[in-house]
Amino acid sequence: MEKTIPRFMSIREVARTGLLSEYALRLMEKQKQLPCVYTGKKCLINFDKLVEQLNSATPEGGAAANV
Q1: How many CB atoms lie within 10 A of CB 50?
Q2: pLDDT tens digits, residue range 3-54?
């Protein structure tokens, strides 16, 4: 089994990908909802875990719709 090295990116770098805005990322940081580590004051986000976290989130308003 091959280990993958996590990609760590700054808030601005993640915002440039178009995944979330810089404002939304900073709000998530304040609410301690970002998978990140700190180097001094700088927040480095584990990009792969963030994508996984966003993909597994249910829409606001409750459970997923039944089909």
Answers
A1: 22
A2: 777 799 999 999 999 999 999 999 999 999 999 999 999 999 999 999 999 9
The answer to the question of residue 64 being in a domain is no
For the question of whether the overall pTM of this predicted structure is more than 0.85, the answer is no
Instruction: Take residue 35 and report the two structure tokens written for it.
Output: 């998978």
Residue 65 lies in a domain: no
For residue 25, what are the domain limits? 8-54
Cβ neighbours of 8 (radius 10 Å): 17
**How far is Cα 65 from Cα 58, in angstroms, rounded to an integer?**
10
